[in-house]
Amino acid sequence: MSVKDFLSKLTDAFTKSEKSSIGKLFIIVDQQISVLTSALEKTEEWRDIDNAGGKTLNKLGENVGQDRGRATDEVYRVLIRGKVARNASDGTINKIILAISKSLDCNYNDIQIINANDSNSSDEHEPAAIIIKKIPLSALNAVGLSTSQFLQIVNSLKSGGVRVAYINLEGSFSFSKGRTEEISNEGFSKLNQLVGGTLGGLFTPENDFKLPI
Q: What superkingdom does the record give (predicted)?
């Protein structure tokens, strides 16, 4: 409610002007209400893990039993989501993929994990091992996760006794087999970059550290 709305509620016995004594009082009240409303809106907004930061994010982490350690806000959000996802994971490949997608806040279909024994290459066959064939590099780079840190997260989600054989961090780009121009999700991109393959590459921070998992 604005100052004018406050003044309009007064009886005609009062001067309904913002310059009057009661008008100035309403201005002060209106300012205080605006500050209080802003604080309440920010409190509600920061209850969302994607918006919370600093000490508020620490409180959300404490609620699920996840320590921050030296993690940045971006990485800490991944750890918190991962902690919640781990509690619902049974160690199967589908559950691991679901947990990783929730941790990184990415699409389930952007991740591909297979049993090592199901690999097309017989050289990769290994009992009780998994291979991460595809992972969205953009999601890892967006939060600043290193290769070793991502491997920590995966190891916390898999079943005991199961080894991560390797993680494929290559891009999806590939050349056409023939001379005919090919437009696909693996080939060259047009100017709008709606299709086309991606190059591999992952950011590794200089001060890489172990996550508190």
A: Bacteria
* pLDDT value at residue 174: 67
Q: Are residues 83 and 27 in the same domain?
A: no
Question: 204 pLDDT exceeds 80?
Answer: no
57-78 per-residue burial string, b: 16 or more CB within 10 A, e: under 16: bbebbeeeebebeebeeebbbb
In this structure, are strands 129-134 and 112-115 parallel, antiparallel, or unpaired?
antiparallel
pLDDT band at 205 (very low <50, low <70, confident <90, very high): low
Secondary structure class of 85 (helix, strand, coil) = helix
* Paired strand residues for 163: 129
- Domain match, 136 and 64 both: yes
Please report the beta strands in the chain, taking only residues with DSSP state E, as ranges in sequence order.
Answer: 112-115, 129-134, 163-167
Q: Are both 39 and 93 inside the same structural domain?
A: no
- Range of the structural domain that residue 39 is part of: 3-45
